[in-house]
């Protein structure tokens, strides 16, 4: 069993005693005694300010990160597009959720101001570009995919943003001209590239194709005017 050792008085006790003696002797006034015993060490204010600024900077960075949503990936956009396969228009060429969404969107008012007509006219209009725009909206990719009801204007938007080219990539927005022309003004149709088949064709997901439905198609590259490249995450 360990022996019990008496604790010794800390050395500070003697220092305090000496300090008290000095006070009694009149060699140190009481206020000096108090200051000598209790006054904190002076702080480096520049260091404190630097630490506060660093903390504020980290908090601001975290808040900024929370406000800016992550950009979607090409696979996210393609998955949403594929989920729509089979959706069809009615006998009047309308009735799809893509058209209905566009009619009620801010973009409909903007494109009417540009092209004329009325927002209600989009309810039964050709909807391949509205389908692409809707998928962008639903996946949070609208700033990357763009939104329009007019294929030519949509293609020009990609080109003006320097995101236009001739290489098929998954998730790219593909613009077709059935005549085989490479002029943007000749564009007839639009969809998403799913993959390059490596044999002169691409697999796509398109709205308003076949009998007015969303379908997966295989198209010859010879009918492609160009591709718009959304700035997906990781791209």
TrEMBL record:
Keywords: Signal. Residues 1-36 form the signal peptide. Residues 103-231 form the Peptidase C51 domain. Gene3D superfamilies: endopeptidase domain like (from Nostoc punctiforme). Coiled coil: none annotated. InterPro entries: CHAP_dom (IPR007921), Papain-like_cys_pep_sf (IPR038765). Transmembrane segments: none annotated. It comes from the Bacteria. Pfam families: CHAP. The keyword Signal applies. This is Peptidase C51 domain-containing protein. It comes from Nonomuraea dietziae. The lineage of its organism: Bacteria, Bacillati, Actinomycetota, Actinomycetes, Streptosporangiales.
């Amino acid at each position: 069993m360990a022996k019990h050792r008496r604790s010794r008085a800390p050395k500070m006790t003697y220092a305090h005693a000496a300090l008290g003696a000095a006070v009694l002797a009149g060699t140190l006034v009481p206020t000096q005694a108090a200051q000598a015993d209790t006054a904190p060490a002076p702080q480096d204010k520049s260091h404190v300010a630097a630490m506060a600024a660093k903390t504020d900077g980290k908090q601001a960075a975290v808040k900024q990160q929370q406000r800016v949503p992550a950009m979607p990936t090409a696979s996210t956009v393609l998955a949403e597009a594929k989920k729509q396969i089979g959706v069809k228009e009615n006998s009047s060429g309308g009735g799809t959720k893509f058209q209905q969404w566009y009619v009620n969107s801010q973009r409909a008012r903007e494109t009417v101001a540009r092209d004329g007509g009325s927002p209600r006219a989009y309810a039964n209009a050709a909807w391949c570009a509205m389908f692409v725009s809707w998928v962008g909206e639903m996946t949070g990719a609208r700033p990357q995919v763009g939104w329009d009801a007019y294929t030519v204007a949509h293609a020009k938007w990609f080109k003006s943003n320097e995101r236009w080219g001739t290489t098929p990539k998954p998730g790219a927005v593909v613009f077709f001209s059935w005549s085989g022309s490479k002029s943007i003004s000749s564009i007839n149709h639009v969809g998403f590239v799913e993959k390059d088949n490596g044999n002169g064709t691409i697999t796509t997901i398109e709205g308003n194709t076949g009998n007015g439905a969303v379908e997966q198609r295989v198209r010859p590259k010879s009918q492609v005017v160009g591709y718009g490249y959304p700035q997906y995450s990781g791209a």
